[in-house]
Write a structure and sequence with these properties.
globular; 14 helices; mainly alpha
């Protein structure tokens, strides 16, 4: 007597071609993401709680976890202090961050285009030198940079804070890598056959193709420049109009630190970055989706 093979249950037509769903791992993934988001946002929330509290609430045990109603009063104290020109420091930070970001996007994209698509003697060796500068800590060049700014007569001015960061080695390397893959050589050759010069190729072909990379680099550069503390402290400490990070250090200095005032200023200095991250994040996603559709 021969054994018959078991008959398989026929699958429904609606189930054919349907991807298997891992319902067991979805809630764990969302739970982990919510936990990471809560841990990441808690310092910002705690800063806001202290910024809206009184001195008694700050020193209370157990500490308060509910925002108070003194935020506007604390913020008014920060902006009206005579020894700290906080409003001017925010304007200075915006000027420095904007100029450095615009300059970095232009020079790094132009240099990245040259290293990726142009042929000139010593190109690869010069790119190695640019990459090697990333391994040198910034602290090693502070003394020489300070002396150079003094020779130029820029010490204690915003020019000394802006000039050393007009272009970055990371930005050049990042733009080079992106342009190598995003801009085909055939497209550049066809533009040259039509009579386009190098700057025309850069402006009309390269820049539209690298908008997602420009958005990412611009966002990272603006945030890093806004949060820069060491070099502005060396150059602008003791001046009348420093940057926001130096002004915050002045708020936190002294024998007695008023934390509600310090964190109110810190929250005010963080709000522009939060707005930029929200707006910039949308632009980055939009640029990536446009590039995926075009490809």
């Amino acid at each position: 007597m021969t054994a018959t093979a078991p008959r398989l249950k026929p699958r429904r037509r609606a189930e054919i071609g349907r991807a298997p769903q891992d319902t067991g791992g979805n809630w764990r993934t969302y739970l982990a993401l919510v936990a990471v988001l809560a841990l990441s946002a808690f310092p910002l929330y705690w800063m806001f709680v202290i910024a809206t509290s009184t001195d008694e609430a700050v020193s209370s045990i157990p500490p308060t976890v509910v925002p108070g109603g003194e935020f506007m009063n604390n913020l008014r104290e920060v902006f009206t202090l005579q020894q700290v020109y906080f409003a001017a420091s925010l304007i200075n930070s915006f000027i420095v961050a904007f100029v450095v970001t615009a300059s970095t996007l232009f020079f790094c994209s132009l240099a990245g285009f040259a290293f990726a698509k142009l042929r000139f003697p010593g190109r690869d060796k010069l790119m190695i030198v640019v990459i090697l500068t990333l391994t040198v800590p910034n602290q090693l060049g502070i003394v020489a940079l300070y002396i150079l700014m003094g020779k130029l007569g820029w010490n204690g001015t915003l020019l000394s804070v802006i000039a050393p960061f007009l272009v970055s080695a990371f930005g050049v390397f990042y733009m080079r890598q992106f342009i190598m893959h995003a801009v085909p050589d055939e497209l550049i050759e066809s533009a040259r056959m039509d009579g386009a010069l190098t700057m025309r190729v850069y402006w009309s072909i390269v820049l539209p193709a690298i908008r997602p990379a420009l958005a990412v680099l611009g966002l990272l550069t603006f945030v890093a420049t806004w949060n820069e503390f060491q070099w502005p402290l060396i150059q602008l400490n003791g001046t009348e109009f420093p940057t926001s990070m130096v002004a915050l250090s002045d708020l936190a200095s002294g024998n007695y630190v008023i934390y509600r005032r310090v964190l109110a200023g810190a929250f005010a200095a963080t709000v522009p970055l939060l707005v930029l991250l929200v707006l910039g994040g949308r632009q980055i996603v939009r640029g990536i989706m446009e590039g995926a559709v075009k490809s």
